[in-house]
Amino acid sequence: MSGEIGWLNSLPLDQAEAELLTCCASRRWARKVLARSPYQNSESLIAAAVTGVCELSWSDVEEALSAHPRIGARAEVAAAVGLSATGAEQARREANWSRNEQSAAATADPAVLREIAEGNFAYEERFGHVFLIRATGRSAQEMLSELRKRLDNGVEDERVVIQAELAEITRLRVRKLLEDR
Questions:
Q1: CA 77/CA 99 separation, integer angstroms
Q2: CA 61, 119, 24 angle in degrees (round to 5)?
Q3: Do the beta carbons of residue 115 and residue 96 sit within 8 Å?
Q4: What is the mean pLDDT of the chain?
């Protein structure tokens, strides 16, 4: 077994699940990924993570969406009440990942940020959930352009796009989880 994955394989199931939930906040997803463990290497874990997202029901995707901040909004750490030191660290890690992923939005022109905020509101009104996009590697203008385009999608088409974006975000976050060790 590769050293980069051995630490995760050796965790008790509840701790491994908590670690995975920082990558994708669907409990069903985390349990699916854990059911296929132990993993021989990081690539097999990443492949299982992406496959797991693609197999989620819409209610499971909605659970995952609930952990994602709006594009352009500051990622907050969940209230530490009742969280163990490990849980608080995991919440901080996830908030840091969101901030880093959306760093292009943080430095965007105020007019673009205003348009993103307005677009977020219109999107949430239309679809009933946060606009999700893999922000890593995209400028604020690119995200705004994609937001505008996706506002024209039908509900079912948008769900397909959301699941693909969630799979990409999860892939990146699993890689970060392993690199952080």
A1: 11
A2: 20
A3: no
A4: 87
Give how far the C-alpha of residue 158 lies from the chain's centroid of Cα atoms, to the nearest Å. 17
Q: Which residue type, as a one-letter code, is found at position 180?
A: D
Q: How far is CA 104 from CA 66, 72, 125, 160, in A?
A: 22, 9, 25, 25
pTM of the model: 0.85
CATH 3.30.70.360, applies to 3-179: no
Residues 132 and 165 sit within 8 Å (Cβ to Cβ): yes
CA distance 117 to 144: 9
Residue 60's pLDDT band (boundaries 50, 70, 90)?
very high
Q: How far is CA 18 from CA 23, 47, 100, 114, in A?
A: 9, 19, 21, 35
d(CA 169, CA 148): 20
Task: Mention every residue, 6+ apart, whose C-beta is less than 8 A from residue 36.
Answer: 48
Q: State pLDDT tens for residues 114-133.
A: 999 999 999 999 999 999 99
Rounded-to-integer distance, Cα 181 and Cα 175, Å: 10
- CA neighbor of 24 nearest in space, from 45, 4, 9: 45
